[in-house]
Amino acid sequence: MGEVTGQPKYLHVANELRRAIRAGVYPVGGELPSTARLTENYGVSTTVVRAAVRELRDEGLVRGQPGKAVYVTAEPDGDPAANDSVEERLRQLSDTVHAALREFDARLTALEGRAAGPAD
């Protein structure tokens, strides 16, 4: 999950998800990865992910559909990264890219497994 920032883990995850939404990784109308996928991507507990998603929900950025998914409903206002140092912004971008790559790798692996089909 990167270096220690001194902020609670759920806020770090919420900030990363905000940045990903702003960057179009998770566009308005699209869905966030599952809780299980987010726990894996960020190396945190289910409780941390749920608190991060609750933070975004309270801000009106996402809406949960019970039994389905959490959908992005709006983009964050402003850019909280504007006051960050260049090093911090690069670290955050790196974390976001690594999380997206891990998700892509997991999806690709699942697709390759389905394409291979049952062994004869």
Mean pLDDT across every amino acid position: 85
Which range does the strand content fall in? 5-15%
- In the predicted model, the low-confidence regions spanning at least 5 consecutive residues are none
- SSE class: mainly alpha
Helix content: 55-70%
Task: Give the total of domains.
Answer: 1
CATH class reads: Mainly Alpha
CATH architecture label:
Orthogonal Bundle
What report would you give on this structure?
The model has no long low-confidence stretch (mean pLDDT 85). The radius of gyration is 15 Å and the shape is globular. It is mostly helical. The protein has a two-stranded antiparallel sheet with strand order 1-2. The chain has four helices and two strands. It has helices at residues 9-23, 35-42, 46-58, 86-116; strands at 62-64, 70-72. Helices cover 56% and strands 5% of the residues. It has one domain: Winged helix-like DNA-binding domain superfamily/Winged helix DNA-binding domain (Arc Repressor Mutant, subunit A, Orthogonal Bundle), CATH 1.10.10.10.
